[in-house]
Design goal:
This protein has 15 helices and 20 strands. It is α+β, with helices and mostly antiparallel strands. It has two domains: about 280 residues, FAD/NAD(P)-binding domain; about 120 residues, no CATH class. The longest helix has 24 residues.
Length: about 550
Amino acid sequence: MRMFLVLLLAAASAAAQQQYDLVVYGGTAAGFATAVSGARQGLKTALLEPRNHIGGMISGGLSGTDVGRREVIGGLSLEFYYRAGQRYQMDRHLQELSWMPEPGVAESLMREMLKEAGVTLLEHHRLREKDGVKREGSRVTEIVTENGARFRAKVFADATYEGDLMAQSKVTYTYGREGISQYGESLAGVRAVTESHQFAVDIPARDEQGKLLPEVSAEPRGEPGTADKRIQAYNFRVIATNVPENRLPWPKPDGYDPKRYELLARYLTAMTKYMGRPVNFNEVGLFRIIPNGKLDLNNRGGFSTDYIGKNYGYPEGTYAERAKIWKEHEDYQKGFYYFLANDPRVPKELQDEVRSYGLPKDEFQDTGHWPNQLYVREARRMVGEFVSTQKDLQTERTKPDAIGMGSYNSDSHNLQRFVNAKGFVENEGDVQVPVQPYQIPYRVLVPKKSEVTNLLVPVCFSASHIAYSSMRMEPQYMILGHAAGIAAALAIRGGSTLQDINVPELQKKLKDEGAVFEAGIEFQNQGLATIRKRYAPAPRKGPVPWDRRAAK
């Protein structure tokens, strides 16, 4: 009987253990791209998603894509936006690309592409929190999820925003801001002056009784240029609509207390006096127009949807601690909109405008029409043999191991709201510095060879806070994922570590699949020509009108 039980347990363990060439953890844009890319190279590939949605921020509310210079986006990233253009039948408007797909459309496209590539997609597979990674020497051999499933692979990729697989693999990483002295970055560390998303008028940080206003920190700013462990603000990229038949009213959050928005009320009053008119909705929540009567709403101004200073524990937090931070962000931002729509201290013109919008009935139907992804703009960052820094965006912009390009501003959101020397409220940390198109090196994807030799990290990649602030855009995540999938195949077939793959061969394969290594529309057009061949003639399955109202 005892022997029978031993055999039964062994059989159950073997059944739970699954073997793949490539296992990708995290269904973000990078995870989607890594999995599709690897599968197209012939690898037996699994994509494990901790929750139940694919696409990360691309399908989680960030529809107003941060493209920067569009002509530097190529490869699988460009292919996704080409597929979106087909879905919306953009050829009717003499266009091929749709850069701002609705969340539901984006996720549908990604699921289609995963299925077409033959990727095994497994949802609700979250890495076991404390001991989910097994290693032998310098190789990760197995990961274990909370449901007991075990996955062995030749190559693993951590494509999560948090980098939990990377961290459990004992890879060196950091979080927060480096000081100026660490890498010689003039933009690094605490900022002496923060101009963007700042209070345009002086507002006392304390009320008439001398009590600190809610959402203002009592902690000192810190010395300019010094390092800290603060994290740039998170928010939700809320999708809104003013189409009456598709609009739901702004929800009232759990435990709503209008007093927490006292600073917002005073800000609106002061701005009305300063401007000679009330601010409009676009001035407190940046509008990005997307198809079918919808907006992607972002932060804007001194007090906005960015929940400044309330995410410091997220990168290293337990699952329970992160869930609490996530819920706090949701309640804060729901309260922000509810306050604007209902509080009597809000100017009537602004209140009427906010009330004309609401959450769309046809998006995020399993999460109460609220975005299913918190915008984790930055969490952990790997420290590899090569770390991208400010100079790699500004002065040393070409790389021998280029795998794609970036071009978006150095863009870090505010990290703290404090009381300045004059007693007024001040935000700190926002960075908005333009860059010229730059090449992204393969080396940012891999850990130090002495640490792990079969792990790719296309989201929490090796970069300083300042470099990451530009490289962190969703199209670039897909560009990095595209390269990661091919790199995995080269390492497996060549019997090499990921650090020792044939980089020229990687670059050739990427170019053959439409990647762009040089800025210029002619290079993107070459990539588009490659992509057109894959989808010629263009499929017409399930087209979505750009504007359903016009299509009626």
